[in-house]
Amino acid sequence: MLTATIDAFQTTSAAFSVGDVVTLKEGGPRMTVTYAGPVALNPGDWLICEWFDEHGELRHEMFAPQAVRTEPRSIPAGSVQWHRIGRAA
Asked: Which residue ranges form the domains of the chain, and what is each CATH number?
């Protein structure tokens, strides 16, 4: 008989899936997970995330799963910052 055990304290990228919205636990922009798993020459699992910076440039970076937390996929309308959005005259 095959048996398996699960370490309840082990955090892996399996907790994250492509398309999840995350932020750094330290704070920062909302990011979308584009890859979750092993990365060459780096032990363990990693998350590759993409987001748009304050200038509208697309950014991407690799993070340890322990460094991020999940966020809701949608945001409340009241949280939109209109002063950053250009308006057509």
From this structure: 14-74 (2.30.30.390)
